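Bug report (template v2)

What were you trying to do?
Predict the complex of my protein with guanine.

What happened?
Run completed; filing so the output is reviewed.

Input:
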Amino acid sequence: MVGTKIDGLVVSSAVREQVKKEVEHLKSKGIQPCLATVLVGENPASATYVRNKQKACAEVGIKTKDHKLPSTITQSELNSLVDTLNKDSEVHGILVQLPLPPQCNEFETTSRILPAKDVDGLTPQNAGLLTMRKAALKACTPSGVIELLQYYSIPVEGKNALIINRSNLVGKPLIHLLLEKNATVTIAHSKTKNLSDVCKSADIIITGVGDRTKFKLTKEMIREGAVVIDVATTRLDGKLVGDCDFEDIIQKASFASPVPGGVGPMTIAMLLKNTITAAGYGRN
Ligand code: GUN
């Protein structure tokens, strides 16, 4: 069996078209949606991600305010910038690209963002609301995964869904989004015993280890007809790769997402969607 490719470029472009219409609607009411991006240091991958996010904003009519800070910045300087952006009435969404340099505390920084401008869904308030099915701003990569499952009408209810990632940005929010869809959710991580057996019992696997020297998901590890969504992005011999080789996994999966061209474009599309949601707060 050869499965169906989950095409993040197709799905993300449908989301972007919808966002474009909503931007027009907001503009007709005198609201110019605006995202502030904060990039600290010179991590080339982070710089590329932020550039791509800004480009995507421009394409749908969302304004961006670009903040690049040196890697030597102190926590208090970073806090001051977040405070300024919180107060800036032109700014609807704030994205502090992670990771931050070691002298900066990610939790302190992201927690300082006003929940109404928290387009990453990382503040304790939005993360907590998500557990209660009440969040309006949800983490972008997990909501992108759900959007992909919905677009391809992949049944989730009652399925064994395995998440191989426990980060605040991906694994933890995804638990709640999959639970909302009535999946039976398992989280695996570096201390999980018999990961191969755990993978074999999963109907849906969302994998995001991101280190091929430690983990690679192969067709031998999954059950026939499993759905595999690869959220990892790492460089291997100069190429962008996920946790799977798409051509291998698709031999046995019913659906699988490639890297690049899978979840990556969805993360950006959901960021645009969150920015529109934030811009629409308190108005209609
Ligand atoms: N670094 C990697 N992915 C993300 C993301 O979705 N948001 C932020 N802020 N940083 C990231």
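What did the reviewer find?
Residues 95-98, 120, 140-141, 169, 267 surround guanine (CB under 6 Å). The mean pLDDT is 97.
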